[in-house]
Amino acid sequence: MDVEVDLYSGRSNPTVRLDPVAAEEIFRRLGNLPPSSGRRDVRDGLGYRGLHLTGVGRGIADVMVSDGVVVRREESGTTTRCGDPGRALERRLAALLAAALDPEVLALLRADLAQDAGEP
User: Fold this and answer.
1) Is residue 117 part of a domain?
2) Statement: the pTM of the whole predicted model exceeds 0.70
3) How many domains in the chain?
């Protein structure tokens, strides 16, 4: 499973491959997320927008984790929205990426996570 920090426009975003144990943990966490209330959407625009997961497997094409919202796109084309209460999944992914990220990128990610996300 690869995790892309969706941060830049016009240049490559940093991407980190999770080891198999971490990837399995994230897959389990994805399966335990509550349905979204639909009040929020993933971020758009400039700056940090979220974490994009690819190579998830098991029928999942990709996942976007952003500001308390998780959007999972199945290989079948179905899209599922879930909540990420307290941005717990996003925080766990950030912790798993910490050692592999450039310190400046990590600081931006941590600063964003320090903000109150509210409920999705």
Assistant:
1) no
2) yes
3) 1
